[in-house]
Amino acid sequence: MKTLRLILGDQLNQKHSWFESVDKNMVYLMAEMRQETDYVKHHIQKVTAFFQAMRNFHQELSEKGHCFIYLKINDPENPQNLDQILPKYIDITEAAKFEYQLPDEYRLDLQIKTICSNLSVESNVVDTEHFFTSRYELKNFFSGKKTLVMESFYRMMRKKHGILMMNDQPEGGQWNFDKSNRKKWNGEPEIPHERGFRKDVSAILDEIEKAGIQTFGTIEAENLSWPTCRADCLSALNYFCKHLLVHFGDFQDALHTEEKFLFHSRLSFAMNSKMISPKEVIDKVLEHYYAHRDEIHISQIEGFTRQILGWREYMRGMYWKEMPEYATLNELKNENPLPDFFWTGETKMNCLKHSIGQSLENAYAHHIQRLMIIGNFALLCQVDPQLVDAWYLGVYIDAIEWVELMNTRGMSQFADGGLVATKPYVSSANYINKMGNYCSECHYQHTKKTGKKACPFNALYWNFLDEKKEFFIHNQRMNMMMSLLQKKNTEELKALKKRAKEIISNPNQY
Ligand SMILES: Cc1cc2nc3c(=O)[nH]c(=O)nc-3n(C[C@H](O)[C@H](O)[C@H](O)COP(=O)(O)OP(=O)(O)OC[C@H]3O[C@@H](n4cnc5c(N)ncnc54)[C@H](O)[C@@H]3O)c2cc1C
Ligand code: SF4
Questions:
Q1: To which H or E segment does residue 68 belong?
Q2: Ligand minimally distant from the alpha carbon of residue 429
Q3: How far is the CA of 349 from the centre of ligand 2 (A)?
Q4: CATH of domain 137-322
Q5: What's the 478 CA to ligand 1 centre distance in angstroms?
Q6: Considering the domain 2-126 in this protein, what is its CATH number?
Q7: How far is Cα 478 from Cα 465, in angstroms, rounded to an integer?
Q8: What is the pTM of this model?
Q9: Whose CA is nearest to atom 45 of ligand 1?
Q10: Is the peptide bond before 189 cis (omega within 30 degrees of 0)?
């Protein structure tokens, strides 16, 4: 009796217990599908990297003797959606049972559950064995608590998993070294050269073109620079430990025109596709840290651990706690269109030109570019979060809804009214200038608030605070901003708001 087992494109976990031994009665099904390439317009590198990683996974496990059905995008036998693929291949393989791993996206979870309820064979779902937490662990942890704070979840996770702990106390004497993670990078220390992969993906690109899949962004056919197999991922992880971890925490928030990646790991695609697990990543960086304690300060490793054990698991837990309503939230009632330059990078605002340009070129921007440059501008312009979400979901190599949505709609756009972030991440040019060198090469002057050469972020910032003050008046974390707003001279505020309105009505001119 055969069992058909589905593997989704972001379930490339070779270490899953499914693959511990070869069983000829297990048939694994993988499919490149239009339902996945078309639910949002994706960056070309994202579609290509997923197809390449899926094909590598299929090849490596087939070579180990596992039995696979793999449907390529242009396969005439490929119905392109799970609604048709699953019944068809259950029939063809004469499977008596269907099994799948818990999807991480609400959309797919619902779809597969619905399909299963109509199947003529028994179905069974198992864990992906990827995350530190189960789907509803965070929901249970916060049950009955009034406020949801990432820090309390993170501390629980540190204790539970014994990570950076000494006798129940945080190693280094404090839980969080966030305050020492805010250095500006001024050319020192030297950033090691990029760990690229230079994969020739021209064959896949031809297939994507032949299929007529609509994508955006750029790619070099012979130079895909993302890890697309387990060995690549492990090599990227080693590279991070050896060359980047030592300064990761210090320059986590830094911005620079010449350095796109700084000391960031670029492991998000490797983890989100599940080629490597967060536990493997944390175990490896801890091993490296303990072997090099005289060179690596605890603030570097704590900063990194917090992102993965803390934020990554927190976002996933919040997603399953809050979906499906979360995807429709727009508490600040923002309804403006997304500026056209989000699709071209053509703007005189140097910070946006670099951050968006790099996103279109590399399918990557680091956290502070996503949050404090691009997201900041979208929020200050009061763009409809639906449009912001679609852009973020399409553009980044690592964008999968469970993590993209919580970061974009929640942390960045405050559309959830403060569930994920306790205050909106908005700033004037002051912060951007403090953290990087974008302003020194900009058409606009970061110190000016009004006039043709004034930085647009300045007027937009005060206008935003004024227009949305009813939402923030009772938010203690906004007290300082609100009191500065109240102290603004009426004429000055009027001038700022006039300029902000001009920018919002025609952002593409700036
Ligand atoms: C508006 C916005 C949208 C984002 N969209 C995504 C997304 O679609 N997919 C995604 O994986 N991350 C997203 N992030 C979080 C973060 O920016 C990326 O994980 C990170 O930039 C990936 O690059 P890296 O691997 O070099 O990260 P590093 O800086 O090296 O950090 C290490 C790892 O920590 C994890 N991490 C760090 N911050 C977060 C976070 N806030 N939430 C979850 N995990 C985190 C990631 O797995 C990352 O690989 C978003 C952030 C913002 C502000
Ligand atoms: S001056 Fe304003 S627009 Fe120019 S880089 Fe600085 S913050 Fe960005």
A1: strand 67-71
A2: 2
A3: 5
A4: 1.25.40.80
A5: 25
A6: 3.40.50.620
A7: 10
A8: 0.97
A9: 312
A10: yes
